[in-house]
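Chapter review: from sequence to fold.
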Amino acid sequence: MPMTIEAAIAMLACARIGAIHSVVFGGFAAKELANRIDDCNPKLLVVSSCGIEPGKHIFYVPIVEEAMKFCTKIKGTIPCLLHQRLELDGKLCESKIPDNYHDFDQMMSEEKEVAECVPLKSTHPLYILYTSGTTG
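The token string follows.
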């Protein structure tokens, strides 16, 4: 996800329930994203519809879908929460959205209960950070 309030909400939600998260830069090519997905073995992907660069939009869904084809350790599909950026005026991407994508904003608006904080040891990991030249 790009630097949006929804990205911060997703990261804080993971911390609240004790889920380990990893933030991935939206400019990664599909093969690099696939390496990180394979390494993390995620249970859920949180994706924005696009990133906004000077003079253009970068559609993230096709990149994520291409990355999933390169994954070697992930079998099947991974559920995805998709945040529709308003800058696209309802245009999600050039291709059909797969069935494993769920509307981030709709799910947030329908949820009535607040998850309890999960107590964890101070040594429990909060996130996986990939930096240039590392494996996580």
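Two observations follow directly from the output. The chain has a mean pLDDT of 85. The chain has one domain: 5-110.
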